[in-house]
Please model this.
Amino acid sequence: MKGGEDFALERTPLEARRPMWEVFMIRFGTVATLSQLILGASLGYGLNIRDAVLATIIGCVLLEIVSFLIGVAGCREGLSTSVLTRWTGFGRFGSSLIGLIIAISCIGWFGIQNSVFAEGLVQAFGGAVNLKVMMVITGLAVTLLVVYGYKMLSWTANIAVPGFLIAMAIATYKLLTEYNLGDLLNTAPPGELMPFGVAVTMIAGGFMVGAIITPDLSRFNRNTKDVFWMTVLSLFLGELIINSLGVLMAHAVKSSDVVSIMLTLGGWVSAALVIFATIKINDMNLYGASLGASNFLDTTFGLQVHRSLITLVIGILGTLGSVMGILDRFVSFLVLLGVALPPVGGIIIVDYFILKRSRKELDISRAQNKLPDTVEYINPISLVSWVCAFLIGHFVQWGIPAVNSLFAAAVLYWIGNIIFSSSTKKDEQPIVGDIAS
Model:
C-alpha cells in the first residue's frame, strides 16, 4: 500500500480491497472501547434499563442509515470522505474546508482520548507511573502505529478488540452470577434522572462524526454487501450490546465510573484490557485526521505530502496538547465542530444518490482507476446549505442536533438545486458553479 500512503489522495484499487471481517474488526474497534462503555454507564446511571436500551436502538438505526449510505459511496468510488466531497456537492474549495475541519476535530479528540487512555492506565495500575509520562508513551505509541496506515489499524484491532471482549465477558459473568438480573431490570436509575431525548442525542450525536467518515474505511470494502454488514454489525454489536451491558453494570454497582465498575466486576486485569481498547478509537482519530489534512494540503496548496509524515507531525502535536492540558480547554469548540460535520453527510447523500451531478465523471474515471479530470471550484448551494444546517443544529434545541443539521442540509441542498436548476434552464446557463481542471 505504498508504505503508509494508503491511497490518501487517489482511488483505492480493487486489488487493495480487503475481506469484510477485516474491515469490520477495525470499525468495531472504534465502538468496542472505554468511551462506549462510559456512554452506556452514563445512560444506565440516569435511565431505567428499558428506556436506556430503547434510546440506544433509536440512535443505532439513525447512525446505520447514514453510515451505510455514505459508506456505499466511499466503497464504489474508493475514496475517503474528504476527497469524495470534491465530486459530491462541495467542489475543491468546500472539500478543502471539510478536510481541515475533519483534521482539526480528529486531532483534538485524539489528544483528549489520549489523556483518557493515559489516566485510565495510571488509575488501573495504582498510580505507579507519572501521568504526563504515560501520556507521552501512549500518544507516541499510537502515532507510530498509524504511520503505517491500514495494515496497523487491522493489526491493533485484532489485539485490542478480543482483549476488550474478554474483559467484558469476565465482568458480565460476575454480573450475572452475583446479581439478580430480574431485580436489576426493575431498579430505578441510581443517579439523577436523564431526559429520554438527551439519551438518544448522546447515542446518535456521539458517533455521528464516525458515521460521516465511514468512507475512510469502506473504501477498502469489496462491495455494497460488505459495507452493509461492516456497518450494521459494528453498530449493533458495539453500540447496542456494549451500551446495554454498561447500563446493567451501572445499575449493579450504582456508579457511572467505568474504571470502578470494571475493578468491581472484573478486577484490575479487566479494567486494564478495557482501557487498552481505547487505542482503537484513538488510532482511527489520528488516521481520519491524516486523511483530512492530506486533502486540505492538496486542494489548498497543491502539496501532496506523504500521509505518514502528516501522521507523525499531527500525532506529536496532539500528544503535546494532551500533556500540556491545552486540548481540555477546547472541548466546547470540538463539540461545535461535531455539529458542522453531520450536514456534510446529508449533502453527500443527496448529491450522490438523488441529484447525481458528477456521477458520469465518476463512473468514467472509476473504470480507468483514476480521479475525474475536472472538479468544481466552488458550489454556492452546498456552502449556503451547510452553513444554514450548522446554525439549525447549533441553535435549535428540539430533537437531536446532529440529526437536525444532517436532515436540514439534505433538504436545503435538494430544494436549492431544484430552484437553481429551474432558473438556469430558463436562462440556458450551467446548473451550478464553474468547472475547473
